[in-house]
Amino acid sequence: MYKIIGADQNEYGPITAEQVRQWLAEGRLNGLSKIQVDGSGEWKQLRDMPEFSALQPPSQPPVAPGAPQPLQPPSSAGAPSANPLAAWALGTGIASLVCCSFMILSLVSIVLGIVALSQLNRNPNQTGRGMAIAGIVLGCISLLMGIACWGIWLMSHGTGQFANPMFR
């Protein structure tokens, strides 16, 4: 068991060697972090402990335990990734506009756009907000056009009191 002094200068522990390894992997500890074998009374730097020296990541300041972890850059050379649902929302929005009588695409576009916006709010490293909004707008326009087309068709081909004799 070990005790450590965090970046906030507070003492944590006793913790297991596995927890120390996990905190090293998360960047919460580094080679300069102070560590003590529980009960020894002697504080050392983590890099001086042979059981942990091979596990140390490149030197960077430790993060205090319990503090929020910094955002990691995307893995594709730092370029922000596009949200795939935003692209699907735009695609289905365009398709629904072309086929306005098939209103299910309108609904799919609206739902995909809303879900994409929700994901984009949670992950600021992604792009695609414009595509998601365009998909929602196109889906709404297409849905209104589809409702209007179906309404006109029903009025012109319906029977009963709402049928328009001019279209018979």
Q: What can you see in these coordinates?
A:
The protein contains 5 helices and 6 strands. It has 168 residues and is α+β, with helices and mostly antiparallel strands. The protein folds into 2 domains: 52 residues; 87 residues. It has a 4-stranded antiparallel β-sheet with strand order 2-1-3-4. It is rod-shaped and about 90 Å long. The termini are far apart.
Oligomer: single chain
Total DSSP helices:
5
The main β sheet shows up as:
4 strands, antiparallel
Cα-to-Cα separation, first versus last residue? 89 Å
Overall helicity: 40-55%
Query: What is the beta-strand fraction?
Result: 5-15%
Q: Count the strands?
A: 6
Coarse structural class: alpha+beta
Tell me the Rg in angstroms. 30 Å
Strand order of the largest sheet: 2-1-3-4
Question: What would you call the shape?
Answer: rod-shaped
Chain-averaged pLDDT: 79
Order of helices and strands: EEHEEHEHHEH
As for the number of domains, it is: 2
Poorly predicted tracts of residues: none
